[in-house]
Structure formats: C-alpha cells, structure tokens
Amino acid sequence: MNCENHPDKEGVAACVSCGKILCADCRLKLVGKNYCQECADELVTLYSDKKEAFSESKPIAGGYGKLKPTGVPAVDNTYEKARPVKENSSNRFLLFCLIFLVILFFIALGLYIVYLLYLAPFYGDLSNVINILLTDPQRIINFLID
Ligand SMILES: [Zn+2]
Ligand SMILES: [Zn+2]
C-alpha cells in the first residue's frame, strides 16, 4: 500500500489515530507511535488547551493563597499577585486611621488653645470650663462670640 498523500511513495506506517497510510516523509513519531500530520496537530492543540485550562482553573480552586502549592508556577504567580493587593488595602486603612487621629489631635489642640487664650483667664481651671460647657454651653458660646 502506498502513502495517501504521495501515491508514488511506499507506505511505511499507519496513523494510530485515523489509520491513514503514511510514507517515511509523512510519518510523525510521537512517544513511539506513528501519527499523520493532522492527528499530531490535533493532539498538540488538545494538549496545550488542557494545559492552559489546568493552569487557569487551579488558582481559583486554590483560594486566596493561604496554602502555597509547590511546583505549579501559575499558582505561585497568583499567590504573589494576591498578597500586595491585600497589603495595600490594609495600608490604606492604617493611613486613614492615622489621618483621622491627627485631625482629632488638631481639633483637641485648637479647643485647648481657645481655652487657654479666652476661657482660662475668666473661668479658671479646665474642669470648671467643662462643667459650664456641659450645663450651660450657650454662656461660653455667647462669651466667645462677643
Ligand atoms: Zn491520523
Ligand atoms: Zn507521504
């Protein structure tokens, strides 16, 4: 029997997948088996698709990277990518808290300066001023406005 692609050449093998007769030029050996060009292409495409699907689905199944799997580079990448995002958001939260505390500090400082400059000479010590603020705030507001 002759090659199906080259009728003038003698067939030396048959594709294990589709059974096509192949000459020495057309025969492709993969893992010790004979394949035609089309079946070999199909196999390689199938294999790379599977590989992609595997490396894409694995990180999702692996969760948020608490368990760091070894030997699968795709998972390692996600682990490295997931961490900085988490650190950034907690840094932002800390920064927000810090700004909030600084603003509180300046408000307290401002009130204390107001007390020292305007209230202390007339109302005496701080507890007395706080007492007036709690019982009769209008009196201090009127005093500060006038
Ligand atoms: Zn074939
Ligand atoms: Zn051939």
Polypeptide structure, described:
Helix 1 (37-61) packs parallel to helix 2 and helix 3 (126-135) packs across helix 4. Helices cover 65% and strands 7% of the residues. It has a domain at 62-145. The protein is built from four helices and four strands, in the order ββββαααα. The N and C termini lie far apart (116 Å). By secondary structure, it is mainly alpha-helical. It has a two-stranded antiparallel ribbon. The protein binds zinc ion (ZN) (2 copies).
Indicate the topology:
Elements: E1 13-14, E2 21-22, E3 28-30, E4 33-35, H1 37-61, H2 73-123, H3 126-135, H4 137-145
Antiparallel strand pairs: 1-2, 3-4
The structure holds zinc ion (ZN) (2 copies).
Number of helical segments? 4
Please give the number of β-strands. Answer: 4
Radius of gyration: 40 Å
What is the strand arrangement across the widest sheet? 1-2
Task: Give short descriptive properties of this protein.
146 residues, mainly alpha, two-stranded antiparallel sheet, 4 strands, binds zinc ion
Summarize the structure.
This protein is mainly alpha-helical and 146 residues long. It has helices at 37-61, 73-123, 126-135, 137-145, and strands at 13-14, 21-22, 28-30, 33-35. It binds zinc ion (2 copies).
